[in-house]
Write a structure and sequence with these properties.
β1, α1 and β2 form a beta-alpha-beta unit. α1 crosses α8 and α3 packs parallel to α4. The longest helix has 29 residues, at 104-132. It contains eight helices and seven strands, in the order βαβαβαβαβαβαααβ. It is globular. It has helices at 21-32, 44-51, 69-81, 104-132, 152-173, 191-194, 199-212, 221-232; strands at 12-16, 36-41, 57-61, 86-89, 135-139, 178-184, 243-246. The structure holds NADP nicotinamide-adenine-dinucleotide phosphate. The site of NADP nicotinamide-adenine-dinucleotide phosphate has 29 residues, from α1 and α6.
């Protein structure tokens, strides 16, 4: 459990994909640290389950790929709390797509969610982040900087997010806005089911991943969330443009 931090008291955090996995754990951790949290995702029931963990969490059901969604998310946060300090671009999806099965529609759908939506959210949040000298945290993946055979476009979409992170960090540094990324390794969540894999395949993938990870297991969302909060913490004043990998050592294996 994250204890309440004076640095987060009454700060406002918008986090996408907060109805499950890493996003839910992070929303709860931010709320425990004293922040007001706007939890965004498509499924109202999943968001409500997250919000049930803390009165500091409000929900905003939205598909962030829809035109106008980014402006609406930011408007809801500002109407409610008057300021926006942290944007966490967490919503994302993976897709099994060997080169032989690649289609324009599948690439566009993946990049709409993993690259375009975070970009438009950051753009909509920018005037408020300027005022707050706030920060953006993008959730990449350990596969944003290493190969992922069979899901190359997922890896490429996260590589794009990492490059956006570095470029925005320099672009916005003079305004006191920090931009960082967290690159988790395989973590318990709904991601594999959301990718359409069967339960048998999911169990096999999980066993294979755990066997390749030096620490011998997949991560838990709360272990990742602790670093989400740390990187976004306003007291982390001199860290920008960095990609922190948290993957049980997988990157070294
Ligand atoms: N778990 C891992 O092994 C792992 C590893 C590296 C990186 N990551 C990254 O971590 C982030 C969180 O994933 P997770 O593992 O926690 O998976 P998850 O449980 O599937 O969470 C993804 C969340 O994104 C939301 N979402 C999906 N499409 C959306 C849309 N169009 N608009 C709004 N929200 C949408 C989903 O909620 P709705 O369906 O209700 O919209 C869901 O709550 C992702 O960016 C993922 O790529 C995960």
């Amino acid at each position: 459990m994250t204890s309440q931090s004076p640095e987060f008291t009454d700060r406002t955090v918008v986090i996408t994909g907060a109805g499950s996995g890493i996003g839910r754990a992070s929303a709860i951790a931010f709320a425990q640290a004293g922040a007001h949290v706007l939890a965004v995702g498509r499924r109202t029931d999943a968001l409500e389950e997250t919000a049930a963990e803390s009165p500091r969490i409000a929900v905003h059901p939205a598909d962030i790929r829809v035109p106008g969604a980014a402006e609406e998310v930011v408007r809801v946060a500002i109407d409610r709390w008057g300021h926006l300090d942290v944007l966490v671009n967490n919503a994302g999806a993976t897709k099994v797509m060997p080169l032989a099965d690649t289609t324009a529609e599948s690439i566009a759908a993946l990049f709409d969610l993993n690259v375009t939506a975070p970009s438009l959210l950051a753009c909509a949040a920018l005037p408020h982040l300027r005022r707050a000298r706030g920060s953006i945290l993008n959730i990449s993946s350990t596969f944003g900087h290493r190969p992922l055979p069979g899901a190359a476009h997922y890896a490429a979409s996260k590589a794009a997010l990492e490059q956006l992170t570095r470029s925005w960090a320099v672009e916005l540094a003079a305004e006191g806005i920090r931009v960082n990324a967290l690159a988790p390794g395989p973590t318990e969540s709904q991601a594999l089911a959301a990718a359409g894999l069967s339960s048998t395949v999911i169990e096999q993938v999980k066993r294979d991943e755990a066997a390749r990870i030096p620490l011998g297991r997949r991560g838990e969302p709360a272990e990742v969330a602790a670093w989400v909060v740390r990187l976004a913490d306003p007291s982390t004043t001199w860290l920008t443009g960095q990609i922190l990998t948290i993957d049980g050592g997988l990157e070294l294996a």
